[in-house]
Amino acid sequence: MPYGDASDIYILLEVRDGSGTRRLATAWFRNDVQVENPETIQVDFIYGELPPDAPEYAKPSDGKYVRGDSASFILPTHLTFVASSSFDGNYFAGAVGSTLIIDDLELLYE
Fold this sequence. Notes:
- This protein has one domain (7-91).
- It is mostly beta strands.
- It has a four-stranded antiparallel sheet with strand order 3-2-1-4, with no helix packed on it.
- The protein contains no helices and four strands.
- It has strands at 7-17, 20-31, 46-47, 78-84.
- The chain starts with 6 loop residues before the first strand and ends in a 26-residue tail after the last strand.
- It is 0% helix and 29% strand.
């Protein structure tokens, strides 16, 4: 690979209906540091539109979010969960030998 690799772990809460898919909330963790010993991470959801300084890869490609005034009370219809040892794995690109181990996952949704 001509660039460094990184792992990706993310959860997207979505609202899907007849008008398409809109992002309700985003929790994203990308890490390009090699971790030798297991560690606990916590990633919080950001509801509604992501702030302008959020990385482009975390934003929906079509830019569709649940309206800000309804993001605090609308319920998701779908959840997307991805955990990959190579962030570009969906294009079959990744560093040889990349490994991601998830020993325990807890999703708290209130």
